[in-house]
């Protein structure tokens, strides 16, 4: 039996319902960039989520440049990154809500004092801190245990690169076997799995049972150990991880 002593939480659409707000905010900026490079395609926030969920804005821009074969000047990219952060944070300050059941689960986990708690996100640190503060989750996480692939590393990156999880392990002084990660996206799950960390696939933020089941199947096929449809299931999912019980989602559908 594995003894878990540290829990790593993804932020966007795992703790905070922020993805839709974030992609809504950056769609206009992405379209401005496409127009500036004489490219005819345009994105809605919904289309950005479909193509780039789990990536931060910098990662999205790398993907866009590859997709459309153009280049953004590094200095200009930094300007865009800052503008995107400002737009998203303004949206979060106005509209951010916690994922259903997340605050209740965090309160219970925090009160038990059995686990170290950290946030491990692709998003910029300012955005992550704004997200958890606006929904009352900042009291559960020390600020030095909020890690951002965009801001915390010497070289910014984005999930599915495992660098941010490897960095988080180093900072909290834990091995991958002592930790568990909760992730809702392919890129996030792959980031943790590539770092050797067992993953609980959280699908509760997806709309509709069919979409949730499809995502559960996708994430378990990638290597997630178990699936959480609602935060009330967290303790059972953690027990599955500690007992090394993997869920065969396909057989349960």
Could you explain the architecture of this structure?
The chain has helices at residues 19-36, 45-52, 57-68, 74-95, 102-112, 125-134, 163-172, 186-194, 209-222, 234-242, 249-252, and strands at residues 6-9, 116-121, 146-148, 179-183, 199-202, 226-228. By secondary structure, it is an alpha/beta fold. The protein folds into two domains: 6-17 and 97-252, Rossmann fold, CATH 3.40.50.1000; 19-95. The chain is globular, with a radius of gyration of 18 Å.
Key terms:
Rossmann fold, 11 helices
Strand and helix layout:
Layout: E1 6-9, H1 19-36, H2 45-52, H3 57-68, H4 74-95, H5 102-112, E2 116-121, H6 125-134, E3 146-148, H7 163-172, E4 179-183, H8 186-194, E5 199-202, H9 209-222, E6 226-228, H10 234-242, H11 249-252
Parallel strand pairs: 1-2, 1-4, 2-3, 4-5, 5-6
InterPro entries: Beta-PGM-like, HAD-like_sf, HAD-SF_hydro_IA, HAD_2, HAD_sf, PGP-like_dom2
Cofactor: Mg(2+)
Keywords: Magnesium, Metal-binding
Helices and strands, in N-to-C order?
A: EHHHHHEHEHEHEHEHH
Q: What is the percent of helical residues?
A: 40-55%
Count of discrete alpha- or pi-helical segments spanning 4 or more residues: 11
Overall structural class, as computed from helix and strand content, comes to alpha/beta
Distance between the termini: 28 Å
The CATH class assignment of the largest domain is Alpha Beta
